[in-house]
Structure formats: C-alpha cells, structure tokens
From TrEMBL:
<dbReference type="Pfam" id="PF04055">
    <property type="entry name" value="Radical_SAM"/>
</dbReference>
<keyword id="KW-0411">Iron-sulfur</keyword>
<keyword id="KW-0479">Metal-binding</keyword>
<dbReference type="InterPro" id="IPR007197">
    <property type="entry name" value="rSAM"/>
</dbReference>
<dbReference type="InterPro" id="IPR012840">
    <property type="entry name" value="NrdG2"/>
</dbReference>
<dbReference type="InterPro" id="IPR013785">
    <property type="entry name" value="Aldolase_TIM"/>
</dbReference>
<keyword id="KW-0004">4Fe-4S</keyword>
<keyword id="KW-0949">S-adenosyl-L-methionine</keyword>
<dbReference type="GO" id="GO:0051539">
    <property type="term" value="F:4 iron, 4 sulfur cluster binding"/>
</dbReference>
<feature type="domain" description="Radical SAM core">
    <location>
        <begin position="5"/>
        <end position="206"/>
    </location>
</feature>
<dbReference type="InterPro" id="IPR034457">
    <property type="entry name" value="Organic_radical-activating"/>
</dbReference>
<dbReference type="GO" id="GO:0003824">
    <property type="term" value="F:catalytic activity"/>
</dbReference>
<protein>
    <submittedName>
        <fullName>Anaerobic ribonucleoside-triphosphate reductase activating protein</fullName>
    </submittedName>
</protein>
<keyword id="KW-0408">Iron</keyword>
<dbReference type="GO" id="GO:0046872">
    <property type="term" value="F:metal ion binding"/>
</dbReference>
<dbReference type="InterPro" id="IPR058240">
    <property type="entry name" value="rSAM_sf"/>
</dbReference>
Length: 212
C-alpha cells in the first residue's frame, strides 16, 4: 500500500521486471533482470481485487512496463473489468511513444522520467524519441514529469534546455539522487535543486514538486 505513488490517493503498486535502461542510480536494479518465474495475471488481479475496498488506485511500474508491448493494454483492460472504478497510473521511461499513444485511452495518470539530454550515457534511445514521449505525456489530463538530479546526467548548464523540454507540462517532480551500493557519486546540494526548480517554474510554467 502506498500514499506517495499516486498523488493524493491510496494505491497498490504492481512491479514489472526488466528494463532497457542502465541508469547508474537505479533503486530497483533487481527488477532489471528478466525473471524466470512470474506471477500470473490472474494471481496479480486476484490479489488486487481482495484489497479493492482499501485503495483508490493501482500503479504499474518497473522495471519498465512498456517493454511488455503485447501484454500491458490487455492487462489494464482486465483490471478495469475485474476492479471497476479504480484509477490506473503508469510509470515509464518514455522509450516507446507508439505504445504511450495507445495508452491514452486506458490510463488515468502517466509519470515519465526525463533523465538527461544525453541518453547515450545509459541507453540506445534517442533524445528525439524522448521528445515525442514528452509531448504525448503532456496531453494526458493527469501527468507528471520526473527529473532526478544525478550530476553525471544532469548538468547545471543543461537546466534551461531541460526546462524547455518540459514546457507545457502541468506537474514536474524534481528529485534528489540517492546513493546506492557501488556508486559513490556525490549528490547536488539542496541549493542546486532549488535553483533548478526555479528555472523549471519560470520556463515551463508547471507546478514544481521538490523531493529531497
């Protein structure tokens, strides 16, 4: 049960395995590996259904959920049938704008990470693909763009261009990078996060949520 994964709602979170990015600060590295044995869709939906009275929403995260190209939309459809009236949120890294476009009719809230101006640092995805996904995300009535300030990926000289990419968004979360085992990169000082939040607010016009 979560009070933070869907803003203002009590939610249960479904984690999918595998990810096509190799981010140096990933908090869910164990989910990057393809899991040999997985829970069946029926098992997952039964679990959620038994708790329907306790929740407002269901969050699908990862890993990267949109890697499951042929499974994701049917799964959401089955959720809607079995547990009607619950909000559905998707977390994504934005690698698949074509699937995002199809999901506009299926989900209530989408959150996308904007990780850098240089996606070659951790993936094979181009910034042009990310731009397409950002434009789609902004078209969702409920959306959030999340930016984790990991210094090797987010440079201070990039703040203005990143803010331009976010222009037209309604909500942006600026997140402090958290150290993980094996990565001793120093995080930015809190003043840098506040500086970036100010640039984002001025250029994008979005509501800024600061998560330190």
């Amino acid at each position: 049960m979560s009070l933070v994964d869907y803003p203002g709602k009590v939610a249960l979170t479904v984690f999918t395995s595998s990810c096509n990015f190799n981010c140096a600060y990933c908090q869910n590295k164990t989910l990057k590996r393809q899991v040999i044995e997985e829970l069946s869709e029926e098992t997952v939906i039964d679990y959620l259904d038994r708790r329907r009275a306790l929740i407002d929403a269901i969050v699908i995260t990862g890993g990267e959920p949109t890697l499951r190209v042929g499974e994701l939309i049917p799964f959401i459809g089955h959720l809607r049938e079995r547990i009607p009236g619950k909000l559905v949120k998707l977390d994504t890294n934005g690698w698949n704008p074509a699937l995002l476009a199809r999901l506009m009719e299926c989900i209530d809230f989408v959150a996308m990470d904007l990780k850098s101006l240089d996606y070659s640092l951790f993936s094979d995805v181009s910034i042009e693909t990310i731009r397409k996904s950002l434009d789609l995300v902004k078209a969702f009535r409920e959306h959030e763009i999340r930016i984790t300030l990991y210094p090797p990926y987010i440079k201070r000289e990039d703040f203005g261009e990143l803010a331009e990419l976010c222009r037209g968004a309604s909500r942006i979360a600026v997140q402090q990078y958290r150290r993980i085992d094996g990565n001793d990169q120093e995080p930015y000082k809190s003043g840098i996060l506040e500086e970036f939040s100010g640039v984002l607010s001025r250029i994008s016009g979005a509501q800024i949520v600061l998560r330190e």
